[in-house]
Write a structure and sequence with these properties.
Elements: H1 8-15, E1 20-23, H2 28-38, E2 47-53, H3 60-73, E3 78-82, H4 91-106, E4 112-114, H5 119-131, H6 136-139, E5 145-148, E6 151-154, H7 162-171, H8 188-203, H9 207-232, H10 253-266, H11 274-284
Parallel strand pairs: 1-2, 1-4, 2-3, 4-6
Antiparallel strand pairs: 5-6
Helix pairs in contact: 2-7, 5-8, 5-9, 9-10
Length: 285
């Protein structure tokens, strides 16, 4: 496949936002995304690329210049932000948090953040969450549309594999950078990508699609659990910073746990560990 179809639903979603901020690292995925969106007539004037300069690689300045050239050639505005990370701490988490802090500072309520995650990313995310012992929330992976901060995150490429994106890039003669850190097996995602996924593909060729489908099933289950939490809360708002416990005592453990988990997530807090959550349920409630 040498084209990435954006159906009427995606085009309607894009049209509903004033501006689309596209995360643009200069790598294959974001290069394909920016090129595809930049050649959609209905999106002319809506796009702004955002490049986050982490400063971790000796090539970081070159990557920034590459992104500036690509955006200039395609007449797409580019915003560059430099962030500073501690190389002795968890670099993966720091880099992710820094990127989203930059995005959050730019995106308004009438805008959307568009990211280039694809089916292989989704499959890796599901496996990583499985290795961490995650529940339905974690195994749901990344949704194609997600309310975030005061705006929305859109991932229009989730249905496509990395192989498809590479075929598109070669067909359109696109240039992209290769981040040298993507080869380092120190990082868990890279270990999965280079060591685990090839073995799984040899045994189960459709593993990427199967894991992505698992994420969709878990997303559906999560929506049902969220709806049940609202019903069980009996009119008590699950987005307020205070939760009345009076309505919870008539429910079994699992139903109360679902309400509490939903309330924590809606208040944009990190879920506690399984053991901490169990203590919260038994000692506090």
């Amino acid at each position: 496949m040498t084209d990435l179809l954006l159906d009427a639903n995606w085009l309607a979603r894009f049209a509903s936002f004033s501006r689309l901020y596209v995360g643009f690292s200069g790598g294959l995925d974001s290069t394909v995304l920016l090129h595809r969106l930049g050649h959609e007539p209905s999106l002319v004037g809506k796009l702004t690329a955002v490049h986050v300069h982490h400063g971790l690689s000796q090539f970081a300045d070159d990557w920034q210049k590459h992104c500036q050239v690509i955006c200039a050639e395609n007449d797409i505005p580019l915003i560059v932000r430099q962030v500073h990370l501690n190389p002795k701490a968890n670099v993966e988490e720091q880099a992710r948090n820094a990127r989203f802090a930059v995005f959050s500072s730019l995106v308004c309520a009438s805008d959307a953040l568009v990211l280039a995650h694809h089916a292989d990313d989704q499959a890796e995310t599901v496996l990583l969450q499985l290795m961490r012992g995650a529940g339905v929330d974690g195994l749901a992976g990344m949704p194609a549309i997600k309310a975030w901060s005061n705006a929305v995150i859109l991932r229009p490429l989730l249905a496509y594999s990395r192989e498809t994106l590479e075929a598109y890039a070669r067909f359109h003669c696109l240039n992209w950078i290769e981040d040298d850190s993507n080869q380092s097996l120190i990082f868990s995602r890279n270990y999965l990508r280079h060591q685990v996924m090839p073995l799984l593909r040899d045994r189960w060729p459709g593993v990427v699609g199967n894991l992505a489908r698992t994420a969709l099933h878990c997303q559906q289950a999560k929506r049902n659990l969220d709806a049940l939490a609202v019903i069980d809360a009996q009119g008590v708002s699950l987005t307020e910073p205070f939760l009345s416990l009076d309505a919870l005592h008539s429910f079994a453990y699992d139903r109360v746990a679902n309400i509490l988990r939903n309330w924590i997530i809606n208040n944009q807090l990190r879920l506690p560990s399984t053991e901490q959550f169990k203590q919260l349920m038994t000692q506090v409630l």
